[in-house]
Amino acid sequence: MDESKIFRAFCSYWVLSLLPLMPWLTVTYSSLSPSGINYEVVALMAIKTALKDPYNVLENWDMNSVDPCSWRMVTCSPDGYVTALGLPSQSLSGTLSPGIGNLTNLQSVLLQNNAISGLIPPVFRRLDNLQTLDLSNNQFNGNIPSSLGDLNNIFLHL
């Protein structure tokens, strides 16, 4: 058998071996825009940019990544959407970016025991799936957004 036939046979085998993974690959990148931008990555990077992170706990949050599900302190659903941010007691300061409102599948946000300041963004009203929001022991100021009262079945700790 000549080398080109062996190569074609190998490629065919390799492609066929990936077929069972195709549904998973499709779902994982379901939040990609037509231009290949993952909106959840953009939202998470806005959050990272607004925070000061003295111990680099967010160092593996990478703008060039397509999939934030492997990032530290990010939890995703089986279909690849960000469902939780767990950043308690990480010595974070700075502000909370309104970009958090673009993580529309969030169920839990744990930011307690940091030094985050500024206003609590009113964007939480977009997060219909949010069940737990803990912003306690930070340095937020201003009024609590009335939109937080619009959320059903949520545990708030401010």
TrEMBL record:
Gene Ontology cellular component annotations, sorted alphabetically: membrane
Coarse class of the protein's main subcellular location: membrane
Keywords: Leucine-rich repeat, Membrane, Repeat, Signal, Transmembrane, Transmembrane helix
SUPFAM superfamilies, alphabetized: L domain-like
Pfam families: LRR_8, LRRNT_2
Subcellular location: Membrane
Keyword Transmembrane helix listed: yes
Domain Leucine-rich repeat-containing N-terminal plant-type: 38-77
Highest taxon in the source lineage: Eukaryota
Topological category with respect to the lipid bilayer: Single-pass membrane protein
Family matches, as PANTHER family: SOMATIC EMBRYOGENESIS RECEPTOR KINASE 1
Protein name per the record: Leucine-rich repeat-containing N-terminal plant-type domain-containing protein
The organism of origin for this protein: Dendrobium thyrsiflorum (Pinecone-like raceme dendrobium)
